[in-house]
Design goal:
The complex is a heterodimer of chains A (221) and B (469). Chain A has 221 residues and is of the alpha/beta class. Chain A has 6 helices and 12 strands. In chain A, helix 4 links the parallel strand 2 and strand 3. Chain A starts with a helix and ends with a strand. The relative contact order of chain A is 0.18. Chain B is globular. Classes of the chains: A alpha/beta (221), B alpha/beta (469).
């Protein structure tokens, strides 16, 4: 090991050790006591507060037609989509019903360069989420090969599909499930509303570097 | 960045007249503090949430050596490369060598006060490597060559016409604008091109989680996400105190940090990185370098009285409530850290000799301590620093009293113990000083405060000589 490391650690471990306090108890967040319907409503409420545009459909069966209409209404012609099994079958149906839509999947690109070019130039990124946290209306993506990092970041619009079974009460639920599965993703992203800033004269506005609009379709499956 | 902590008084004078700063300090800071209160109010029991956050930070710092060793072990297991830097130069040189080895044409950077502390931009510029700040506020002050005004909003006081001019000159903006949104869009367009072709991105670290070797970043703009998603190589620099034991603690600290910083329950983006991208992933860096920076902190740690300052999570709450900051703003602090935390960190990292006015300019009102979610007792540490300076503490470069202070104390002691001298000379001098507040050696004091008039007759003359046997 390097000598700088040892010198630093030596200074941190010699001398009077401070007392290590016990953590005081904390009352549970109210979300832990909510039933699935309340959780979903709370999620939608918080999403709306953060200026996400929320749409609700009743079942997986309605989703393809609803999405197609949403894409048409917004004039999205080029979309980069994630490709987990749920999204893969959904995008298949979309391409079938919308022959003019140019839909890219990460696997279409053997090289990183053209993939990045595409991610920076499409009209929207379409992704599923791994979890949606009711506590603050937060979408969580555990990035991997099928659900990579850029589709929810580099396009001007992020179009996310949330299913009722994705909804969890608090952040701890997400981390507990991931830790129990024994496999933390290389990157875990918590998304709460569109990108924003208030760096100029404390004037807040949406769409700084990331998406300007966050469209969420919630499926009451 | 240049260290300008010795110029406090001049910078403060300028800021009292600076309309951009006045606007922010007089109107927005009280609003920010109110927003923080509302944010904290969303906890079922805000006081308990603060107590827990304070305990987490105290516990983490008390156990720092073990937590860092565990963090390192798990980060390496996840595939990250961990580099320990004892000094700013070692950290800078490590990053420069990476840049040179991989022939990186330019680097982009997320907002991070630690890279301001390192002077990384200037260091890489000397190496011929351009650095692009990507946080909107930091991008603006980089172009204007100004220091950060506030750790959360580095350019929050800069008027829009100034931003418009510099964007047209240096960031390719076509038409002038006073609209913050249009200015933001111009910066977005300019930096987007940098993100698209970037190969090395640099970020700070808000929290490190020992149990998994993960690092956490908290942001609103998305620039840090780009810096961690688009490049081949990611360098994340953390000061060594950022580590906590596990995710339960980290998630509570994220809640508290966001509420205290901007009043949000959580910022737009929070990212948790555990190692570089997996081989089959299309995005993310193939190399993740984590630089653990000491730069004087382990020395701060060894003194049980100053160790507490390492509990800071850089939320900025103390800055927004400080009555001195609300008058003078961020520039007088002369370095990366401003407000009450700057009064502690800057002297401890730079020495008491070049930061006298930082720990001097404090009214000891204790508001900072009341709001601090990390459990730092700023006022008592400020008193400690003043004491260490007067006692010429060699560890902290304490200088003792100034020549003028020593002379005044000598003269006061001499005359107060000699009745003749007191009645004939000292009392006359005090009477003159009371009549002419703009004259004399104490004028900095008497100009702003009424000097009480000296009574015509002394207490002793009224009592007669009987009191003195």
């Amino acid at each position: 090991m390097n000598p700088m490391r040892d010198a630093i650690l030596q200074r941190l471990t010699t001398g009077k050790p401070g007392p290590v306090p016990d953590l005081p108890p904390l009352p549970d967040l109210p979300h832990l006591a909510m039933d699935p319907d309340e959780l979903l409503d709370t999620l939608v409420k918080h999403l709306t507060e953060q200026s996400a545009e929320v749409h609700r459909v009743q079942s997986d069966g309605e989703l393809p037609d609803f999405l197609a209409a949403l894409i048409r209404d917004n004039n999205f012609t080029r979309i980069l989509a994630s490709q987990d099994p749920f999204m893969a079958s959904l995008t298949q149906e979309l391409t079938r019903s919308m022959p003019n839509l140019v839909l890219f999947r990460p696997d279409d690109f053997p090289e990183r360069g053209p993939y990045k070019e595409t991610a920076f130039t499409v009209d929207a990124g379409l992704t599923s989420v791994d979890y949606a946290v009711a506590e603050s209306g937060t979408l969580v993506i555990a990035h991997n090969r099928t659900n990579p990092r850029l589709p929810s970041l580099s396009p001007l619009v992020h179009l996310a599909v949330v299913r009722k079974s994705d909804v969890v009460p608090v952040y701890e639920t997400v981390l507990k499930r991931l830790m129990d599965s024994g496999d933390l993703p290389s990157q875990l992203t918590f998304i709460t509303g569109p990108s924003m800033t208030a760096d100029i004269m404390a004037t807040p506005f949406r769409g700084m570097h990331g998406p300007k609009r966050l469209l969420v379709v919630v499926v009451d499956d | 960045m240049d260290i300008n902590t010795e110029n406090y008084v001049n910078e403060a004078r300028k800021e009292l007249e600076n309309p951009g700063s006045r606007m922010f300090l007089d109107f927005f800071l009280p609003v920010l503090s109110a927003v923080r209160e509302i944010g904290m109010g969303s906890f079922p029991d805000p006081a308990a949430a603060v107590e827990r956050a304070r305990a987490i930070r105290k516990k983490s710092v008390a156990d720092l050596g073990r937590l860092l060793t565990t963090f390192e072990k798990n980060a390496v297991k996840a595939g990250a490369k961990v580099f320990w830097a004892e000094t700013a130069h070692e950290a800078n040189a490590y990053i420069r060598d990476l840049v040179n080895r991989h022939k990186i044409p330019y680097v982009t950077k997320g907002k991070s006060m630690i890279t301001e502390e390192l002077g990384l931009n200037d260091f890489l510029a000397k190496n011929g490597t351009p650095v692009f700040e990507t946080d909107l506020g930091e991008f603006i002050i980089q172009l204007l060559e100004k220091p950060p005004f506030h750790i959360i909003g580095p350019a929050i006081n800069i008027p829009t016409d100034q931003i418009s001019r510099i964007f047209m000159e240096k960031a390719g903006m076509k038409d002038p604008s006073s609209d913050p949104v249009a200015l933001g869009q111009a910066a977005r367009g300019f930096l987007r091109d940098k993100f698209r072709h970037m190969r090395l991105g640099i970020t700070g670290v808000n929290l490190a989680v020992a149990e998994t070797g993960s690092i956490v970043n908290v942001e609103n703009e998305g620039n840090i996400r780009f810096n961690k998603s688009a490049p081949d190589i990611q360098v994340s620099i953390m000061s060594l105190e950022k580590v906590v034991e596990n995710f339960d603690e980290a998630l509570h600290m994220i809640r508290v940090l966001c509420r205290n910083g901007t009043g949000q329950k959580i910022t737009s983006y929070v990212t948790v990185d555990t190692g570089p991208r997996k081989p089959d992933e299309p995005d993310g860096p193939s190399e993740l370098h984590i630089v653990i920076l000491d730069n004087g902190r382990s020395r701060i740690y060894q003194n049980p009285k100053t160790r507490e300052v390492l509990q800071c999570i850089r939320c900025g709450a103390c800055i927004n409530v400080c009555p001195v900051f609300r008058k003078v703003g961020g520039y007088p602090y002369g370095w990366a850290y401003t407000g009450p935390i700057g009064k502690l960190l800057n002297p401890l990292l730079l020495g008491l000799d070049r930061t006298r006015d930082l720990y001097g300019a404090c009214t000891l009102c204790k508001t900072c301590k009341t709001v601090c979610p990390a459990g730092i007792d700023h006022p008592s540490m400020i008193l400690y620093l003043r004491n260490r300076n007067m006692n010429q503490d060699p560890e902290l470069n304490g200088q003792g009293a100034t020549f003028g202070e020593r002379l005044f104390a000598k003269a006061a002691a001499l005359s107060a113990t000699r009745p003749m001298l007191w009645n004939k000379v000292a009392l006359k001098a005090l009477t003159v000083a009371a009549r002419h507040p703009d004259l004399g050696p104490a004028r900095a004091w008497t100009l702003k405060r009424r000097f009480p008039p000296v009574a015509k007759k002394t207490y002793r003359s009224l009592r007669g000589k009987k009191v003195m046997p």
